[in-house]
Structure formats: C-alpha cells, structure tokens
Amino acid sequence: MRPAAPSPSIALQARVASARVGQRAILHDLHLALPAGGWSAIVGPNGAGKSTLLRVLAGLLPCEGEVQLLGRPLAGLPTRERARQLAWLGQQEGGGEDLQVQDVVMLGRLPHRPWLAAPTRTDLDVVSQALRTMACLDLRHRRLGELSGGERQRVLLARLLAVQARVVLMDEPLAHLDPPHQADWLATVRALVAGGTTVVSVLHELNMALQADHILVVKAGRLLHFGPSRDEATHRALQAAFDHRISIHPVRGQWIALPQEAAHAD
Ligand SMILES: Nc1ncnc2c1ncn2[C@@H]1O[C@H](COP(=O)(O)OP(=O)(O)OP(=O)(O)O)[C@@H](O)[C@H]1O
Questions:
Q1: Alpha carbon distance 104, 132 (integer Å)
Q2: What is the CATH code of the structural domain delimited by 1-70+166-178+198-266?
Q3: What was the ipTM of the complex prediction?
Q4: Considering the entire predicted model, what is its pTM?
Q5: What distance in angstroms lies between residue 46's CA and the mean position of ligand 1's atoms?
Q6: How many beta carbons lie within 10 A of that of residue 85, not counting itself?
C-alpha cells in the first residue's frame, strides 16, 4: 500500500499577472500563498478587486497566471474533484427559487453523488447537520424564493457546508445576517479551521476580519499586504488602504476598527 500523500501546507497559491473583466484589467501582479487549515480574510475598499480575486481563486474567472489548489494547478483538476475540494459562496447568488430549502442544501452533495443516484444516508445526515449548524432546520420545507435575506443567506451557507470541502471560499458571507447569526458564523468558521479546513472570506466587516488568522489587504487590484491579523504591520496596511479613515484599537483582548470622521482624518 502506498503511503498517503502529505497534506500541502499551502491551500491556495496564485501568481496572477492580470485578470480581466470584459476589456478592463482588474487585478495586477498579485502573488499569494494561503496557509492550509487557516482562515484568511480579504479586505479593502469598494471596487478594490476583492470579489474578482475570490473568483480567480475559485477558478471562475480565468487569469493570466496560475492558481494552485492544494499543490495542484486548479485549471487541470477534473470538475467533480475540484467541486469536492473547493466550495464557493458568491454574492447575491440566484437560482433555485422554487426549490425547497432541504433540496437547495442537498445540491452541496452533488459532487459526492453518482449521476442521478438517490441521496445516501451520509448525504441526508450531512444536510441535516448543515441545516442545524446554520439554524435553518425549521426552514427546510420552505421555498428558497420566499425567504428573507438573512434566512436565504443561512441556507446558502448550509449548502456550502454540505460540500465538506477542504477549501471554502465565501464572498461577503455575513450579508443580511443579524449579530447572533454572525456570531454563529464565526463559531462555524473556527470549527471548520480547527478541523483542518481552509477558509477564505471577503469581508466588509473589519471587526470580523480582525478575528481571522490572516488578512489580505487589496487596493486598486493589487495585494498591498498579507499578514497575521494581530500584527501592527497589518493594522498599518489596513489603515492606509482605507485612507486613514479607520483606526484600530485593542479591546478586551481583541482588535476593533473604528470609523474616523472626515474632519478627524490625518
Ligand atoms: N462585469 C463587470 N464589468 C466591468 N467592470 C466590472 C465588472 N465587474 C466588476 N467590475 C469592476 O471591477 C472592479 C473590481 O470589482 P470587485 O467586485 O472585484 O470589487 P470589490 O473589491 O469586491 O468591491 P466591493 O467592496 O464594492 O464589493 C470594480 O471597479 C468594478 O467596477
């Protein structure tokens, strides 16, 4: 029997010379290596290219350069294998409005199931667990299209969890979530990371991003900084990226970002 291949220490590696949307080059000369089994938050001003970067990392937007997933070129991975290894939640995802919530979450199991096969006991258990984790078990017989924004987001997060991927990418996962559900999301991310999953999230909520292991600061399509969320250099980069319209302070063992009024900006 062959020994198991060692787990790569880098989950996602990208060397992007440029990435275009239509005729416009959005990302430029961007190199990164995201540690496996950690949580990296992508932050930066509006229009910086955060969502574009996440789409490149997911293989949804071609780029001039290369993305590697767990040590292998993403572009060369068979579709089903890629779908099992890497789960994705985009912004304002549409589709499946008439589906029942439990069927939406079952879509997360598709990469694991043979074509047209009925769900296995494992699939059903994983879906129930994902619904429970995202506090949407009570919603399971409702139609996706009739849910509130926050309820819908929790269902889409449950679908993401149901994939049980080793690498999870989320674009603004906290959209529409109230504070208790944001706290649940944070606990879920911590549990995923503790279990060895790699999490990458685009976040506008800087206070949540400051809870991540690492922060990527993106501005004008370039990676300004990548570093631990607790490092002073990371805080300086964050403040610079937002034109010093935020300040970062220690509060009860955590870091928080506060907005600065224009009149008080440096
Ligand atoms: N379909 C498109 N056609 C043309 N330009 C686009 C398109 N999609 C995005 N862009 C542009 O690409 C740039 C980066 O967009 P992106 O959505 O990646 O930024 P972002 O950092 O995620 O922004 P936000 O914080 O506002 O969500 C923006 O200037 C945006 O206008």
A1: 14
A2: 3.40.50.300
A3: 0.97
A4: 0.93
A5: 8
A6: 18
